[in-house]
Design a protein that fits this description.
alpha/beta, Rossmann fold, 2 domains, 6-stranded parallel β-sheet, 4-stranded parallel β-sheet
Length: 270
């Protein structure tokens, strides 16, 4: 009954932490492609090949449903995977859906025409690859009109977090927020469009100001997954054991993951 959680590195652990709290009886297979991180500076074909390889490994581990807890993979690879690669008895879902549900206050299955929503000015902070894909803007346009999205590519933030250099990460976040504000001085809401960024949530909030609503993905994804599994219980796969897999150095990744989640995590080589 395992469900897969995939990320290019450690950021997806923020999602894993939230979904395990929400669904404590479900075993999760976490795959971190640390050996090829970060994805945010790779081209779409490279991201596609790496993502399909990782998801195949999770299918082999007994997952019928895999969550791409990586915005770059969701933006650059998911649609192509859904159109031509995923087997009929498997599902792969991205992390944009819960964000847009929250922002537009409408369910994903709501196929009514786009309509005006309360928020008009939205800041999107994401990796360069996610920003270049314009996937968030495209999906939002299907559901809302009159929303101005200003995207800021946050180069260097993922590398700093993966390296454990939170002082550098904080400095970079503040620099990127300043750059965004030069383009959009008064955003009403901000999307943290990378699963690493919730680790810097307080810094984003402080730099943006208390009046800006900051949307972080982890809890939104957890609630969305719980709802999905309630509606599609057969998508819980045959796997029975939780496991952590990485393409990086298992010892180093385990140490960093343990620091992130403040509990002992043991990764094995994928």
């Amino acid at each position: 009954m395992a469900v897969g959680i995939f990320d290019s590195g450690l950021g997806g652990l923020t999602v894993l932490d939230a979904v395990t709290r929400r669904l404590p009886d479900v075993p999760f297979v976490y795959f971190g492609d640390n050996g090829h991180a970060p994805y945010g500076v790779r081209d779409a074909e490279d991201v596609y090949q790496l993502t399909t390889s990782a998801v195949s490994r999770m299918f082999d581990a007994g997952c019928d449903l895999v969550i791409l807890a990586c915005n770059t993979a969701s933006a650059a690879a998911l649609r192509r995977m859904q159109e031509s690669w995923i087997p009929a008895d498997k599902r792969v879902l991205g992390v944009f859906v819960p964000l847009i549900e929250a922002l537009t206050e409408r369910k994903w299955g709501d196929n009514s025409p786009p309509r005006e929503v309360a928020v008009k000015h939205v800041a999107l902070f994401a990796t360069p690859a996610t920003v270049a894909s314009r996937a968030f803007q495209r999906e939002l346009a299907f559901r809302a009109i009159g929303v101005d999205v200003e995207a800021q590519a946050c180069g260097g933030v993922v590398d700093a977090i993966e390296d454990g250099d939170m002082i550098l990460a904080e400095a970079l976040v503040r620099s990127h927020v300043d750059a965004l504000k030069r383009k959009m001085p008064s955003p009403e809401a901000a999307i943290l469009g990378c699963t690493h960024y919730p680790l810097m949530h307080d810094t984003f909030q402080d730099a943006l100001g208390a009046d800006v609503q900051v949307y972080s993905q982890a809890n939104l994804v957890a609630e969305s997954l719980a709802d999905y599994l309630a509606r599609h219980p057969k998508m819980i796969g045959p796997g029975t054991e939780s496991m952590f897999l990485t393409t990086g150095d298992p010892r180093r990744v385990s140490d960093r993951a343990t620091q992130f989640l403040r509990r002992k995590i043991e990764f094995a080589a994928a």
